[in-house]
Amino acid sequence: MSSRKKKSGLKSAAGKNFLVQGSILAIASILAKIIGMVYRIPLTNILGDSGNSYYSTANEIYSIILMVSSFSVPLALSKMMSERINRGEYRNANKVFRCAMRFSVVSGAVMAILTYLLAGIITRYVMNFELAKYGLRVIAPAILIFAITGTFRGYFQGFGNMVPTAVSQIIEQIVNAVLSVVCAALMFRYGEKLAAENGNSQLGPAWGAAGGTFGTVGSVTIALIFMMIVYQISRTNFRRQMASDPPRRLESSQRIYRELLATIIPIVLSTVVYNISTVMDQGIFNAVLKSQGYSEEQYSIIWGIYVGKYRVLMNVVLSLASSLGPAIVPSMTAAIASRDKKKAIRNISSAIRFTMIFSIPCAFGLAALGGPIISMLFHPTSGMPLSIGIMKAGAVMIILYSLSTLTTSILQGMDKMKEPLYHNVIALIIHVVCIVVFLRVLNLNIYAVIAANTVFALVVCVLNAHTIRVVLKGYRQEVYKTFFIPTVASIIMAFVSYGVYNLFHHFIGVTLPCILAILVGMFVYLYVLVAFHGIEVREIQTMPHGQAILRICRKLYILR
Questions:
Q1: Three-state DSSP class for 293?
Q2: Which of 55, 196, 238, 333 is 20 to 30 A from 180, alpha carbon to alpha carbon?
Q3: Is residue 78's pLDDT more than 90?
Q4: Number of C-alpha atoms within 13 angstroms, CB side, residue 70?
């Protein structure tokens, strides 16, 4: 009896409700994205659309390099540790962590050095944005720091504990917000002095962007210190668990590295292919517009509106799918390892439904109130018609990217590492053909980028869904509550929100009507969702602070 209790205790962390853990990480990620969105407002005002392009270019290249060097390590580490913890092999799980840490340090250091040395070549010949080299060089050390931080996060995620990752993300964004704005302002002034001496007006925005990227370096450093402290605190309990581990031969380091690489490489390639489209988009977009007679300043402003406004808001919505991904991997790994098909199907259905209930109304809301939200947040002096058009055109793209991001993580949790890679390669080929045709033949300008990305995400969604159904025979995603009801509720919400805003903004400006329209829209969406049984009381109860949410819903007469 005691051994049975012991075994269940060993698996208790891994067996937590992944939706609860995912919700914790999702809430933290959304808060982090909101903080990120808030600080991008003064940052955009400091840098301007042109400087924002340099800043975003450096960050996009940094993100791709992270994916190659260490971004996949937390996911691979959490999967490998979860497998061993599920079997009660704590000493082997610890050895996996140590091997992953060594790998992250070496790969992170090599890529950080190469990024610094090759920054000028990458920005000049690949991106057609040479002055982005200053920001890329400043952000290069963050590659190594993030690699180590991510390994600590993967360690806790392997136990099904998302709290350290969640807290560190919020701390990271707060520090990033302060440092980015302060350093951008200081370096922008320095760049303007150089511009006065050299006669290049773009030096101010370029050096300001470099100052902004320093916020990433400082914030990741603080996050690393926090994770190291939490790790030291948790080591005592982990040592006790290792002491209770029955004597067995430890896995060899060579075997662990082989498994780590076998897990990482497909994830890296899949993730890079999935995310490199943004970098490719910018390179193709800049090259085509340059050939059509646009100056660097002109196409940098257009791209700056797309990445600095639309993509910033879009990433807030995508944070939910990105958070449920790491949360579902350990749970899926445990379900597949124990051959619990029903649990795997239940987890997939819940994760997709939860993501759609959140993503669909956000997409419709941004389409309906895109102009007011941009005016309220960024106070642009120009480019509003283009900004509004991008927000409306990009609504479907947000929904499809949320679904494709989550289903890719689901396949990885099912130990299907190669399939997402194949799907992303197929989608990327179609994507590149589409963007070239849309730009050169149809002359859609920035809308070509949105349309091509929508096609990319749609192809990934279709291929991922087919593979999940093939692997888990009997799985069929419920449609009525997952897609139909949220869409109907979102359409009603969008019309009501738009009407509320237009009713008041002629009298009291933009900000208050916009906030009122958002609040009324949230109420209408929840009311319709509950009225049509899109979500049940028992499902709300399983959420973090579910009882508190129910009390609020009853006070607002959303629930009887």
A1: coil
A2: 196
A3: no
A4: 27
Give CA–CA dist 237/391, Å, rounded.
Answer: 49
How far is CA 188 from each of CA 78, 180, 303, rounded to the nearest angstrom? 41, 12, 20
Cβ pair 34, 169 in contact under 8 A: no
> Would you state the structure tokens that stand for residue 10, as one six-digit string?
């060993």
Q: Which two tokens stand for residue 73?
A: 């390590």
Q: Do 129 and 57 touch, CB atoms closer than 8 A? A: yes
pLDDT band per the 50, 70, 90 thresholds, residue 29 = low
Q: How far apart are CA 463 and CA 430, in angstroms?
A: 13
Average pLDDT (64-70) is 76
Q: Give the residue among 255, 248, 196, 394 at the shortest CA–CA distance from 311.
A: 394
pTM given for the model: 0.69
The one-letter code for the residue type at 191 is: G
Measured distance CA(296)–CA(65) in Å, rounded: 25
User: What is the C-alpha separation between 277 and 68, in angstroms, rounded?
Assistant: 15
Q: If DSSP states are collapsed to H, E and C, what string results for 243-303?
A: HCCCCCCCCCHHHHHHHHHHHHHHHHHHHHHHHHHHHHHHHHHHHHHHHCCCCHHHHHHHH
**Separation of alpha carbons 501 and 5, rounded Å:** 58
What does the alpha-carbon distance between residue 148 and residue 81 come to, in Å, rounded to a whole number? 17
